[in-house]
Amino acid sequence: MRLAEIFERVVGTGAPVRFRAYDGSTAGDPDSDTTMVVRTPVALNYLAQSPGAMGLTRAYVSGHIDVEGDMYTALDRMADLAFNDGPRLSPAEMARIARGIGWVKFANRVAPPPQEMRRGKLSWLGTRHAKSRDAEVIHHHYDVSNAFYELVLGESMTYTCAVFGSEETSLERAQFDKHDLVARKLGLEEGMRLLDVGCGWGGMVMHAAREYGVKALGVTLSKEQAEWASKHIAQEGLSDLAEVRHMDYRDLPDGIYDRVSSIGLTEHIGKKNLSGYFDGLYAKLKPGGRLLNHCITRPRNDLPAMKPGGVINRYVFPDGELEGPGEIQMRMNDAGFEVRHQENLREHYALTLRQWAANLDRNWDEAVREVGEGTARVWRLYMNGCILGFERDVVQLHQILGVKLDGTDAHMPLRPSFA
């Protein structure tokens, strides 16, 4: 049996891509403009151990398979495999494939690439979403390299969904407009105090201070993010108004804020902790204060919040959990917030990811020098796969605006001033 044919059988027949193996054999669609290249027998070991998306990811990240042509196009054509567990081979089929390449080669266990977060590594840090475990998870994803993130995210250094006026809008403009949309939903005014939880590199904090004269505090579990943000706050001359601290939002001292923004943090909270999360933010707001929660969501509340053994959870967001927008809104309601506005920005995140993926491709050699080829490959695969996820409504992005009533007064205009 030819190696390319074996590979095609393991990942599924009928995929409209071409396969080429190191022994010179080919399979699949000969006219496809995208080719999956099997470079070494280790690719087959990975697929034998984990048929489907996990095996493909391990083989790609470690360089044992490659993609010739556009990554997004390749994933689009193999979307059923990318979003599901892949084909399940019968014992007879497995035995037939093993005979084709030799039992020793087929059965040999190969360690996952080092970029994969093994579940055992986290278990000794405590239960899911314990403070020490959350700190390690954030370190795994966000402390990759500030220089690498600058290559991918661009000048805005903002790692959350942007808001596009059109498909031609630049990434920097779209990120500015996202921060300004949040500011307008919150009704920021000069002299207010803003708390931004999970502030990343401080984009919202600096925007609020620079554009609205707001005294803004951001907190992040990433030491590298906090250092980068503090440096740039000083460079912009905003130190009197803006501050970013390296700390867990749960350790914030008591204080009352006019407004709270949470942009891209709820994904790290966990379903069982949502009530406490929103209770805590409610307590930090003055009467009449507003919370804007911006996060990735699942399209339905009855879908599972996480897939512990999935590619995203192992390689990108360990312990990440996504809830349906109704679940998040319910928890905000139960914490005491009156929900005043909700918006789905799903298509905007697909556009954002396209810009990030293009930045990575354009700066590929420099990115590889900065973080290594394996990590760069993780990001190329992850971002292009997520474009498909948002385009195909596998995931969504919701902004939900809540108000802490002042008695019965929401201090909201009769009609909102934001679009």
From TrEMBL:
UniProt-recorded Gene Ontology molecular function terms: cyclopropane-fatty-acyl-phospholipid synthase activity
EC class name: transferase
UniProt xrefs under InterPro entries: CFA/CMAS (IPR050723), CMAS (IPR003333), SAM-dependent_MTases_sf (IPR029063)
The enzyme's E.C. designation: 2.1.1.79
GO biological process per UniProt: lipid biosynthetic process; methylation
Family: Belongs to the CFA/CMAS family.
Protein name: Cyclopropane-fatty-acyl-phospholipid synthase
Organism listed in the record: Streptomonospora salina
